[in-house]
Amino acid sequence: MNNLSRNLISFVPAVLILGAVVSLNAGERPAWKPLFDGKSLDGWQVRGGVAKYHVEDGAIVGSTVEGSANTFLCTKKDYGDFLLEFEVKVDPVLNSGVQIRSHVYKKDTTIWVSRRGSKREVTRKAGHVYGYQVEITNERAGSSGAIWDEARKSVWLYDTSDNPAARKAMKDNQWNKFRVACIGDSIMTWVNDILCTDLRDPVDQAGFIGLQVHSFRGDKPAQVRWRNIRIKDLGRHVWKPLFDGRSLDGWHIVPGGKWEVRDGIIEGSNLSSDNRHGLLVSDKRYGDFTARLKFKALKGNSGFYFRVDEVGGGVGVHGFQAEIDESKDIGGLYETGGRAWVVQPSAEDVARWFRPQEWNEMTVSAHRQRIVVHVNGRKSAELKKDKGRLEGHLAFQLHGSQDMHVMFKDIQILLPKK
Fold first, then answer.
1. Which of 38, 184, 198, 259 has the most CB atoms around its CB within 10 Å?
2. What is the pLDDT of residues 98-155, one digit of tens each?
3. Which residues neighbour 178 within 8 Å (Cβ) at sequence distance 6 or greater?
4. CA distance 368 to 349
């Protein structure tokens, strides 16, 4: 057991932190470091609105200002993988939060936001803070420790609605201890030692930390206080290529169909007269991994296979498939040679995340018995405590007995930065 593993196991029960272990070189011992010196706001800067921050009795105090937008006191340094601890006490009338791996819009940016089943355009001004937010609120709301996607998707990425213990973790009018573990695409939070969030989300791998004072209307200013803010910096994960953009080195072809490389793109095609599934299979086998790719499904049914074994015959492999198609089921999970559809999305779901005849991004996170699929940043499928396959090859599929045309590029895997 390395030093980091010992530290993590003392941090929370081992069964909860298995998904957050990162390999470090022998002899490295990441140490806790204060993010706040207890006396000044050195190393921090205010972004967003005009709420006020000052230091009082060893705590950072954030005070609302009438008419201000959401305001954030942000670290000047970015962090990737880390363990973060802090204590917080918030007026029960005020909503707050802590941003992690967050950013600011560099220019006025128009984005699509989904609300109550419909989409609308919203313009975020330059300097507006966006990214993952660890929610801080009152006992009644019961959502402290959940993850909100601030000023981007503006949705809950992980809520506490089905976790009674988490909903009761926060206590009004007293100091509450928060813990956050970010390792690769894993984000976990605890409030007063109760696990609230166990999220897999691949969008951001690094960014600043920010203390939020929410916009507020009231007879008098409301306040939120933070103290004992400390961090273990564990480096960061980065995306590494699985396709060199020039050749199929590292991959092999299982006929039928045809695979070609053109201008940094893998193109696959097949004819309806060929009943074999054409496959492009990784030479290497993978157990736990997070991978992403861009695809354009122009004609026919395709997919990104993982944890597969080559079996010969018409289908070529048995294992999981994240579905890729020109019109339906995109982002669902299918098990060839097994359970068939494991998670099949509805047409309404697919319309939320798929862009027909355009480039789309898919991410597959497969760690132990949990699998999460995202399409264009939206979670399209998830399996928890699955009893299926735990390792195997990656592969791209050309479905047999169909006229096929599909394209792939920017195929990457998430690995610790050396």
1. 184
2. 999 999 999 999 988 776 666 788 899 999 999 999 999 999 999 999 999 999 989 9
3. 84, 85, 86, 87, 88, 98, 134, 136, 145, 189, 190, 191
4. 26
3-state class (DSSP) for residue 20: helix
Question: Which residues lie below 8 Å from residue 297, measured CB to CB, with a gap of 6+?
Answer: 324, 325, 326, 330, 356, 357, 360, 406
What is the rounded distance in angstroms from the CA atom of residue 326 to the CA atom of residue 98?
Answer: 40
Domains along the chain?
3-235 (2.60.120.560), 239-416 (2.60.120.560)
State pLDDT tens for residues 356-393: 999 999 999 999 999 999 999 999 999 999 988 999 99
Q: Which of left, alpha, beta for 6 (phi over 0: left; psi -120 to 50: alpha)?
A: alpha
3-state secondary structure (DSSP) of residue 165: helix
Torsion of CA 242, 245, 247, 253, to 10 degrees: 50
- Per-state percent for the chain, helix, strand, coil, to nearest 5: 5, 50, 40
pTM of the model: 0.91
